[in-house]
Amino acid sequence: MIELALIGIGTGSPGHLTREAIAAMADADLILIPSKGGDKADLAELRRALCRQVLASPPPLAVFDMPARDVSEGYRQGVEAWHDAIAARWEQVIRAHGAIRPALLVWGDPSLYDSTLRIAERVARRLPLNLRVIPGITAIQALCAAHAMPLNAVAAPVLITTGRRIRDHGWPDGVDRLVVMLDGECSFQSLDAQGLHIWWGAFLGMPQQILIAGPLPEVAGRILATRARARAEHGWIMDIYLLDRCRSR
After folding, report:
1. Global pTM?
2. How large is the average pLDDT for residues 116-120?
3. Contact indicator for 8, 137 with CB cutoff of 8 Å
4. Residue 40's pLDDT band (cuts 50, 70, 90)
5. CA 192, CA 179: separation in Å to the nearest integer?
6. What is the rounded CA–CA span in Å between residue 21 and residue 142?
């Protein structure tokens, strides 16, 4: 039986690794490192650097190319086919190395807007697999800590959603505070900005961390320009933001 560990590593800072995460990394006999190549090569290097920094004797690291998603298909159909291809790649790497305790380092936490658990379910159909999940610090926690703010207003709900949902459906009913993830298009531009306050952060917990907060009409342009410059400089960007339309509470 293969013991696959999915290890939450926070937003890239070694300080985000829990003791449980470090112990699971040390126990692995192989750590899989996905690579998107090109401008995003730094993401694979960040995972390698974490292993070097926290492990006295890192296990073998297997860097593999991530399959590309076919954007010509419908969104859900394309994602399903993409996940199938990634699962096949995982299986190939695990078999090639004869790994019994492989591990994957997952940005943030494997349970929150991440597909690693769904892909692992596919791998379990191909290999005799036990799955272990080690939770990690989420980008939401890192954002609130960086801005020194609570996630929720007093006794009020918070909705965690995506840029796609905001762009396609507008502000959801019944909530005054949103956390928006997976938004490569800054979908807050599709909302009526009047009365909205935003807390935005990129590269949270890392040396290149960037924070901007304020009334959305006043800071939206600065966020757009800052994000574009940072992405051009690094070749990639991970960002997240919180929106509130009842700032006075």
Report:
1. 0.90
2. 96
3. yes
4. low
5. 17
6. 17
